[in-house]
Amino acid sequence: MSKVTGRTVFVTGAAQGIGEAIALRLAADGFAVACADMNVGAAEAVAARLEASGASACAIAVDVADRQSVFAAVEQAADRFGGLDVLINNAGVAPITPIEGIDYDLYRRAFDINVGGVLWGIQAATKSFKQLGHGGKIINACSQAGQVGNPDLAVYCGTKFAVRGITQTAARDLAHLGITVNAYCPGIVDTPMMQKVASDLATNNGQPFEWGMEQFAKNITLKRVSKPADVAACVSFLAGPDSDYMTGQAVIIDGGMVFN
Ligand code: NAD
Q1: At CA 229, angle to CA 128 and CA 255, rounded to 5?
Q2: Average pLDDT, the chain
Q3: Is 156 among the residues known to form the active site?
């Protein structure tokens, strides 16, 4: 991967899990990193780690479900670093939803965060790139669950299929501005989100936590659950110049679960 200097990235959900790993990797790649999260205390801790390692970083409070909050946060990051080159819509939630138990509030909240958050992030990045007079890269969190339906995840799969559709459409709509839009599709990544999904599934089935994790892990070709850093390496490629001739793609980085 080529080293990037003088470029800025805005990452949502950067306080933990995959977003934290992306922040660490892109700082190592040479980006100044705005760590945006609704858990601003934890985002501050990540930004402090980055600064201690010699990178430029800051923490920014954001609720990605709130359009105004996303616009304000992206503007704050661009002001803080004097630019914006890459925006990563990583924040998301993954409720377990057996079909008959889905209620309106759960459906609404998941779509507001996973789908609304991506739309508002795309809009805010586009506004910022236009103001700055250049193009940029937008990268969205999809999932293997945005490629194939997963049991008990109807709402989550619906949001991630939507992210793939929005990514393809935004790529076509924004190409004339020099903006590329791609997505990454992780498989089973060992983060607080995945640990909760596995725990909920196990509880719903009267089984121990390890059984829940195994239900997701057993069909991985590479026979191991993903580390957040595996996904961050894919995002590093999507954020850097080696992916310049690529747009509208949802790259699967799942250890071999879905073959397209
Ligand atoms: P995580 O739950 O460990 O971390 C998510 C982060 O997003 C948290 O810091 C949380 O505070 C933040 N967040 C949640 N809602 C927010 C909101 N409304 N506004 C701002 N921040 C908010 O999750 P993760 O496992 O790191 O997942 C990151 C992304 O990757 C998600 O979009 C997820 O759907 C996707 N993904 C994860 C996996 C996996 O196995 N962990 C697999 C495929 C895709």
Answers
A1: 110
A2: 96
A3: yes
